[in-house]
Amino acid sequence: MTLTRDEHAAEIRTRGYTVVPGILDDQQLSASRAALDEVFTNEAAIAPERKWLTESYRVAYMLPQKHEVFRHLPLNPRLLPLMRSVLGNDCVIGSLNGLTMVPGGTTQRLHKDSVSLPGQVLYINALHALDDFTIANGCTRLVPGSQNRAFRSDRPELLNSSDDAQLAAYEHEAIAVEAPAGSLIAYDGGLWHAGSRNATQSPRRALHLLFCRPWVRPQWDFARSLSPQIIAGMTEDERSIFGVGIRQTWYDWRTDTRRLD
After folding, report:
1. Which has the closest alpha carbon to 16: 113, 151, 155, 136?
2. What integer pLDDT is reported at residue 211 of this predicted model?
3. With the C-alpha atoms ordered 244, 247, 248, 252, is the resulting torsion angle positive or negative?
4. What is the Cα–Cα distance from 186 to 16, expressed in whole angstroms?
5. Does 252 score more than 90 pLDDT?
6. Which ranges of 62-216 does DSSP label H, i.e. alpha helix?
7. What is the β-pairing status of strands 141-142 and 175-176?
8. DSSP-based three-state secondary structure for 103
9. For the CA atoms of the chain, what is the radius of gyration?
10. CATH architecture for segment(s) 5-260
11. Burial class of residue 6 (count of CB atoms within 10 Å of its CB; 0-12, 13-18, 19+)
12. Which residues contact 156 (CB under 8 A, 6 or more apart)?
């Protein structure tokens, strides 16, 4: 059964996630795979020392700086209207990373991408599956509805024994989300989730486009992280979705000091 945009939005607000097939067409899928593989190759020497390569996964950060393909994807007309219907028309990208579960690697621990505010969606991780997501190759597992639950710590590395027991209980509720390549798995940033063990010898690649409301803290400051050359070549729509040009109101003490002296 094909869901409407409003129905997908309702699933994000209630159970915390939704799956939309065909978010990327064949051309976009091919270009995204090639671009991510190119970034991984370019960073092969530095990934281990920077802990971008672990026993579980390989990650590449700030993809819009590293390849043109990733500067266009957030404006995908199959994607952006859904993000705006939940987060508002002024939503922006908070981060854009690429990840693959390491073939033959270990499972990732359950975690959250952001703080959660029960009853309010602040962030949506718009995961783009670049390969078929299966149980065998380490598809994402998640705990439906967990974005609206209280938890003693939002940081798994700080868990004490009782928190750890709560997290173990969450594991028993976790479901595996299988989806064909090109699908969108969109979930609330406050939902507990993780990549699973890739038991195959093939990659399980994904793009993580974290959308957020413009007034919450993004994971990356794109205005300062993107080079001036790339910003200069962006369209107005691209600059807007990456929050380039959005400034908080600030007080210029230097001007006031000069005026009052």
Report:
1. 113
2. 98
3. positive
4. 8
5. no
6. 63-66, 69-72, 80-87, 161-173
7. antiparallel
8. strand
9. 19
10. Sandwich (2.60)
11. exposed
12. 109, 110, 111, 167
- Residue 68 vs residues 7, 63, 96, 232: alpha-carbon distances, Å: 32, 9, 13, 13
CA dist 189 → 12, 124, 208 (Å): 10, 5, 11
Return the structure tokens found at 8: 């997908």
pLDDT of residue 161: 46
Tokens standing for residue 45 = 């020497």
Q: What is the pLDDT of residue 59?
A: 98
Helix intervals (H) in the chain: 5-14, 26-42, 63-66, 69-72, 80-87, 161-173, 222-225, 228-232, 236-241, 253-260
Indicate the pTM of the whole model: 0.90
What does the angle CA 68 – CA 187 – CA 108 come to, to the nearest 5 degrees? 85
Residue 119: pLDDT band by 50, 70, 90 thresholds?
Answer: confident
Tokens of 238: 């691209």
